[in-house]
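Review form for a predicted model. The reviewer records the input and the model, then writes brief findings.
Reviewer: anonymous (R2)
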Amino acid sequence: MPRIEKIVMLGDSLTEYHAWSDLLEGAGIINLGVGGDTAAGVWCRVKGAAARRPDVIVVQCGINDLGRGIGPEEIAGTHRRIWTDLAELSPGSRIVVCGLMPINEKKFGWAGPVFNNGAVRRTNEMILADAASLGHAVLDLYALTADESGGLPDHMTLDGVHLTPAAYEVWTRALRELLEKI
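Model under review:
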């Protein structure tokens, strides 16, 4: 297995708000997370991510789409465009697709017809199965972080969506383990 020297983290605020420098020893990390971004916004930044010619591109987005009423099917379609364009523009890069984390509906204070953990699970089912069928590595963050009720535990979230250091520790550890295998 070739050594991973450069990793691009591409996503929304959940990506942006973490210092990924301790992810993988010896790897340079480029954090291209943007707070409030949707999957369509991430797609608009694909060329910039691919131009960096990383060994690995980690994609995490979609929770803001649900919050804006965009359904799982549309999010999954945009994810596919992201991966297709990344693969075309940076053919030497491995793509890792992270599923959406659950939300803490009680702490967040509201959930809508599309913004709830049922929609998060449906979105994940589509994007993770599709990504795996295309040969991309997948990381099911929902399975790693959901409590017995299917939500994000209180100790893992600041406001029902954004993450605490405990949640980032789980994500970082799981991503590190996955990267060591690819």
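Findings: The radius of gyration is 15 Å.
Further findings: Strands lie at 6-11, 28-33, 56-60, 94-98, 137-139.
Recommendation: see findings above.
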